[in-house]
Amino acid sequence: MLVAETETPRQSPSALPRSSQPLSHLRLLEAESIHILREVASEFERPVMLYSIGKDSSVMLRLAQKAFYPAPIPFPLLHIDTGFKFAEMLAFRDEMARQVGAKLLVWRNEPAIAAGTNPMVLDTKRCCALLKTQALLDALRHYNFDAAFGGARRDEEKSRAKERIYSFRDAAGQWDPKNQRPELWNLYNARIHSGESIRVFPLSNWTEMDVWQYIHEEKIPVVDLYFAKERPMYVRGDALMPIEQSFVALPGERPQMVKCRLRSLGCSPCTGAMRSDADTIPAIIAELISFRSSERANRVIDHDQEGSMEIKKREGYF
Amino acid sequence: MAAATASSFSIDEFLERERQKDLLRFSTAGSVDDGKSTLIGRLLYDTQSVYEDQVRSIEGKGTTAPGQIDFALLTDGLRAEREQGITIDVAYRYFSTARRKFIIADTPGHEQYTRNMATGASTADAAVVLIDASKGVLIQSRRHAYIASLLRVRHILAAVNKMDLVGYDEGAFRAIKADFSAVLDQIAADTGTPAEVHFVPVSALAGDNVVHRSAAMPWYAGPTLLELLESLPSAQQTHTAPLRLADKDPSAGTPALHPTDKDPSAGTPALHPTDKDPSVGTPAFRFPVQRVLRPNHAFRGFAGQIASGSIRPGDSITVLPSGRHAKVKRIVTWDGDLDEASAPLSVTLVLDREIDISRGDLMVASDAQATVARSIKAALVWMDQRPLDLGRRYLLKHTSQTAPAFLAAIDYRTGLAALDHVPAQTLRMNDIGAVSLNLLRPIALDVYAENRSTGAFILIDPESNATAAAGMITAAFSDPGAAADDAADAWGRVTAGEREARWGHRGGVIEISGPLKLIDSIERSLFAVGAVTSRIEADDDAFLLHPSLLEIVSGIAARSGLLALVVRADEDVTLAARAEGVEITVGAADSIQAVAAVHQLLHRTGIFISSEKADL
Fold it and tell me: Is residue A177 within 8 Å of residue A157, measured between CB atoms?
């Protein structure tokens, strides 16, 4: 567990812009994100922040603290728990919510989980549809949320490059890429009819590198799984499969200790680890510079069919 | 994999360099085959901004020769695009060099995507306009340059592409440069925004002069496209930088980018902000209030993003539209209080006294105030399927507020082919025109030429909620209806919108029955808030003889913009009122409450446009 920061970090040397200096790109991104968070909190009746425990969520949460300081974050956090999240992630989630003082809601598609939904039996596409997309839509409807923040970034995946900052969803929660509202300047159209909602992406213009640099500059706590250490893994070709509750080993397969880390956090059956020595944030950043493949390459669900992220998004996935 | 920790590389140095990096946003526009996607793909590829798995996923696909990478596939995101081979929307791309981070707004170039081009240009510091060397200056290049100019994108980078197809011929490049320069002069004369233009001969396909210098064009000694992008001043420097030099007289800022010397529009509007702005050229402090933060009784702060200029504790500010003054006491952030903050930082301001401020108010430097406008003239880019409807009510979103507005007049539509001004009855999707708008509530604003943030707005269709148009304010007036009066149509028929703007309510019929004294009080209270009423006694003999006449008479009054009060006096203990199919019944004993209920009813049914009149 690295929920280390007991003192909230203040006055980090780079945090205070001096008038003589141009603002760095991180300050500019931060200012834009804070503007978005405040707009949504002011224009919608029931906003919620999707909190997925990963690095992007961690940055988004910090930005929310900054946006409303010294007032508390004026909306709850919602975690969609598939039942396949790493145990470390859940502990981290609860600790973060406690530290930040935010209300945390957890939603699980219990009927699907009880029915034994898992990616080994179903294909990953249908598993995601039930445990993530369906659960998310149910939760949004249950609580009647009219705006939901997500930590998605446009640089993550091709179909996300076209996503608006305010992404309009119809009453069924679906996304129509051909019918998106034009978004000019920093003027966001927050008007919706009853039943419709907006997904909001305050980190739209951040890249993976920006996120890590910001975590470094701001000393934002992140889940320990991002840092390299010796972990027991099943090794299949290039793939490292973590041992979690749901893992089904092949006959004769034995886990071995591998120094590795996770580059992005998903469900344990669908998130592979990578061999790495990067055990600090600067080391992760150094590793990123040398990377030859994109961040979501380890996420099985992005590759289950051509244009798969776009299809998931149309159906209501984040 | 962790080879980056080699001795020559220091992560600390890298992080320090990253802290110095700023951000430049630029837009691109191009049509199906002028190679725009290829150019962007090339920029990303040659700056090592794409990953191997992304390149692998497109290798061997697309339309290029076997073994080559079709760079266009790196950027065309959506399935429909991949299938049709065109770019249909705005896509944002990110890359970074040692000097700066870039955000590309990548937009299609065809006429039917004018609105997407405007979207991309709205946040851009520079526009890369593609010109096909083998075809010369086509309408697409012209359109993109016009929109960039209209949206005040300061730098135009004219990339003369496909130089390989014309044998890298210098003469071809020079001819295009001369043609396009003439076009840009024409555009600047129309929009009033002269751009800084840079010409670069490139071949995106072969990679010439995009990132790397070309050996094929020794006659070109200028910078590559990327070198230009790395050296242009960024948004913060051109639009919103604190020009107040440290510890110097605030009014002694560098005069820069002042619009009056290039504004070709004849006749200065009554309240053109330059008339009274003492700090000419200095971006004046503008701070739209997004939210009031009040975590406890001891703290009351105003959260927002600085739209322009800078602020320090002790500075005097004026809150618009109320016009109240205060001094800034603290600039609060999570990272601690600041000694100074400048655009575009998001901060929270604490003032030295309690004054009434809410979301939508604009804080401005007391010595450089904005115009509190009741009517405006604006350039519009129409974005909705449903065409502009004159006289219809739209919602105008400006900074952090939304107010109803009437389109009072279309001054003209701009024909992009000839850059001429054509009389028009409407604007359709992707049309560009100039209009006059009446605001139903005063809004503090600037003209767009002076401030890209407080001079911009969007129009929202109140029924469909679609974003109907993007607007750039060209003139502001404190009188309602003044913008439209200024139009050529000044002697034409009075429109419903003009009446609504002047009287603050729509025409309508309200039927009231109850005690006579209470009816009189209601009429009096409506008169007091400035409503223009026509009292019609329903028990008049004429209506008893001809019952259908009552509806005809009240209808005429309503269509003339009047509030027709159809009254029936009785001795009942209750008051009944009905408007637009909504009926209320209240006790007549508490007359103040009954009167208030009638005002609320008028507000609820949309006859009273703002809550101003509904509150007694």
Answer: no
